[in-house]
Design goal:
The chain has 399 residues and is an alpha/beta fold. The chain has helices at 12-26, 33-38, 53-65, 75-81, 100-110, 132-143, 163-166, 179-188, 194-204, 208-216, 218-233, 237-273, 281-332, 339-345, 352-361, 364-382, 387-398; strands spanning 42-46, 88-91, 120-124, 149-155, 170-173. The structure holds zinc ion.
């Protein structure tokens, strides 16, 4: 029978742990020591982007409040997933950080007993974005839990959280799902044609969300095509500056396309909630203040989306150099693999000729440096470095 855990691709090792925790959580109070050991009130899900850490946490939340342990079909399961269940709170951060005021508000809301008598579950999708003061406020709650509140924190790695917080959580490490596993999900769950599913799964390297987005969005695919050609165009410093601007433009364009439709929907909904066109004085000021708040939030989300798109573009570019390195390593070996074997291990199979030519034209040591430069740039961007300057510096190093 499919249930809430069926969608977690390649995570069998943690599904067993979560299932026994659900069993223990629903066991009567006087249960054995073993079952109390299986359930705990603070969990930390870590894993590379796209491994599905927040999906795992949400599935666990569903299973904890579902009468049958996470069927995926009942009212509880469905409302929990849409963040519409009174006892489930899913915190997705739109901005670059989670501030102390937001955590305080959250703590007030979650201090009540669960309305349905079971568990109150908080899923925090980006616990790594907690500011230090916000993390400390949260720490107090995790240290003295209300008996029925469960905290599910998600972060890329353990080191993204304060040691004091991570030491109080049970840690679950998700794995990057294999390319065939992602291909299967795209075909069977999303109905994507096999050839497209294979391409998207391969170039997105285990990132299911990104793979689905790429497979279903033609503009994103054509943007990716442009980005993948950038390394070939870096023949001078002037070309490097041009490439940097192009990368920024593409990321901004992609981010705007994704957020525009959403922003408009939110603003309309908010105006309707205040009674659009209302003339009463109090009504008008209340609405305009709320719209301003929302616009501020949307702006902060847009900044983050541009950064996310830039990061995705940099990861794509890194796969080019990764393939170049692979060819260079293969040609350095005494018994060289056949072109066919080599092609199969590439991520960008469609660019084999360009990659091969590039590999023979440049030294292997330089390729390693270029990959390192890209990874350093990703870290700098995640620390809020100015995007254009940072990308320009990177392109000059790559040229
Ligand atoms: Zn259910």
């Amino acid at each position: 029978m499919p249930d809430v855990f069926s969608d977690l691709v390649g995570q069998e090792h943690i599904i067993d742990i979560l299932r026994s925790a659900v069993t223990a959580a629903n066991a009567p109070q006087e249960s054995t020591e073993n079952s109390t050991h299986a359930m705990t009130h603070a969990w930390l899900f870590t894993g590379p982007p796209g491994s599905g850490r927040s999906s795992a946490a949400v599935a666990f939340a569903q299973a904890l409040i579902c009468p049958t342990g996470g069927c995926g079909a009942c009212n509880e399961c469905r409302s929990a997933k849409n963040s519409a269940h009174p006892d489930i709170e899913i915190i997705c951060t739109e901005g670059l950080s989670i501030k102390i005021d937001e955590v305080r508000e959250l703590l007030t809301r979650t201090s009540w007993a669960p309305s349905m008598g079971g568990w109150r579950v908080v899923v925090m999708e980006d616990a790594d974005r907690l500011t230090e003061s916000a993390a400390n406020a949260l720490l107090k709650a995790i240290e003295e839990p209300g008996g029925r509140t469960v905290w599910l924190l998600c972060a890329p790695t353990l080191h993204d959280l304060l040691p004091t917080i991570r030491s109080r959580c049970r840690h679950l490490q998700l794995r990057t799902p294999s390319t065939p596993a992602v291909t299967n999900v795209l075909i069977n769950r999303d109905g994507i044609a096999p050839e497209m599913a294979d391409f998207a799964a391969r170039v997105c390297q285990g990132h299911i969300g990104r793979a689905k987005y790429l497979a279903t969005n033609e503009i994103v695919r054509s943007n990716r095509g442009v980005i993948m050609k950038l390394p070939l165009q870096l023949t001078s410093i002037a070309a490097a500056y041009e490439a940097a601007q192009k990368l920024i433009d593409l990321a901004t364009q992609e981010a705007n396309a994704a957020s525009e439709a959403r922003d408009e929907k939110e603003t309309t909904a908010l105006q309707e909630a205040y009674g659009k066109g209302a003339t009463g004085r109090g009504m008008a000021t209340g609405a305009s203040k709320a719209v301003k708040e929302l616009e501020k939030e949307q702006k902060s989300r847009a900044t983050r989306m541009v950064r996310d798109c830039l990061d995705g573009a940099l990861l794509d570019m890194a796969t080019f150099y990764r393939d170049v390195m692979l060819v260079q390593a293969a040609t350095a070996q005494p018994n060289q693999p056949t072109a066919e074997t080599l092609t199969r291990s590439l991520i960008n199979i469609d660019m084999f000729d360009q990659i091969n030519a590039f590999a023979h034209k440049t030294p292997a040591a330089a390729t390693v440096k270029k990959i390192n430069a890209i990874m350093e740039t990703r870290i700098n961007l995640s620390h809020n470095a100015a995007p254009l300057l940072t990308i320009e510096a990177l392109m000059c190093r790559l040229a």
